[in-house]
Amino acid sequence: MSELRIEDLVVRYGHGAHAHIAVDGVSLTVPDGEIVGLVGESGSGKSTIARATVGLTPIAGGRILLDGEDAPHRGRRPVQMVFQDPQSSLDPRMSIGRSIAEALPRSVPRAQRRTEIERLLDLVHLDPSRRDARPGELSGGQRQRVAIARALAARPDVVVADEITSALDVSVQGAVLNLVRELQRELGLSMLFISHNLAVVRYVASSVAVMRGGRIVEHGPVDRVLESPEHPYTRELLAAVPDPIWSPA
Question: What is the rounded distance in angstroms from the CA atom of residue 233 to the CA atom of residue 211?
Answer without folding.
Answer: 9
